[in-house]
TrEMBL record:
It comes from Trifolium pratense (Red clover). One of its GO terms (cellular component) is mitochondrial large ribosomal subunit. Its main location: mitochondrion. Residues 156-230 form the Reverse transcriptase zinc-binding domain. GO terms for biological process: translation. InterPro entries: Mitoribosomal_protein_bL32, Ribosomal_zn-bd, RVT-Znf. This is Large ribosomal subunit protein bL32m. Belongs to the bacterial ribosomal protein bL32 family. PANTHER family: 39S RIBOSOMAL PROTEIN L32, MITOCHONDRIAL (PTHR21026), LARGE RIBOSOMAL SUBUNIT PROTEIN BL32M (PTHR21026:SF2). It is found in: Mitochondrion. The lineage of its organism: Eukaryota, Viridiplantae, Streptophyta, Embryophyta, Tracheophyta. It comes from the Eukaryota. Keywords: Mitochondrion, Ribonucleoprotein, Ribosomal protein, Transit peptide. One of its GO terms (molecular function) is structural constituent of ribosome.
Amino acid sequence: MTMRVAILRDARRNLGSILGFNRLIHSVPQSPPLAGSIDHGIQSVQPVLPEFSSPSFSFGGSMELMAVPKRKTSPHKRGIRNGPKALKPVPVLVLCKLFAWEENLVEQLLESIGPVVFSAVTDKWRWIPDEGGVFTVKSNYMIVVKWLLPFLTISEAESEASVSLWKCQNPSKAIAFGWKLLHDRIPTHQNLPRRQIPLAEGEQNCVYCGIEAEASVHSFLYCEVASQVWWEIFGWLGFDFSFKHNLFSVLNFLGGQSKKKNSCEIWTAVVWVLWRMRNAVIFDNGIVNVSSAVDEIKVLSWKWWLGQGTGALCLLYEWRMEPLVCLER
């Protein structure tokens, strides 16, 4: 087979930074006989992502690691083509005289291509973290989690709330909003200046009460309007809301009250309706109405629960009267 090797003078440069070819290597063909040729520009011996990806060579006719500059005067371009009939195998190993620092690179290169068995299958990249060799979001997510875990400090309550929320079968947009709310990543008036969005003096106050600064915990839990909504919802469920919580503890409390652990839908519905009512007040000249918000929460959570299709049907009036009984069906 015939292989073209690009040896960079600066290994830290990216894929497009080839300074030129300076070596041409002919090596002994592997068994079975090679049906084509490898015509690759290689940044270094190791792949671009050495820990997570590797090239899978078959006949060497379609694998490209980087763009190859065309030079009319380059002697290494003459007679080199891709394809099954490009070049005949050369039965000897011929190496130009190498610099001392290049010898180790060439040895590693030959070791890496030594086990390759050529076939008619198309060349491709293989994603190592996935068993099938195909890149998936899940495998990439697990890599990121593995990297971040040593630096994260998560309490048991936060961990339980996260698991409960992501197992919830509500619409994805509502779950994603709940996740951002738990981590204070929603665009409240307190967070907007952090994103370089200035607000006039007085505009950072809570939309509901107009007294405190609009922070996530205040607007969704401690504000008088939000507290009234939670009080009504807890009373509807038959629970006491006489003690103060944080958003994680409220989610964990509701998630543990149903045998089927489905009460997270109600928590998600509450924060979703509170956010929509807040936006309506700001952008649509809406009004703050606790009773209307509570009724919307009941109807919305009932629709989301029906959409799961995992249990027996429950009529709306039954849901209004005994929501936990419906959840346990």
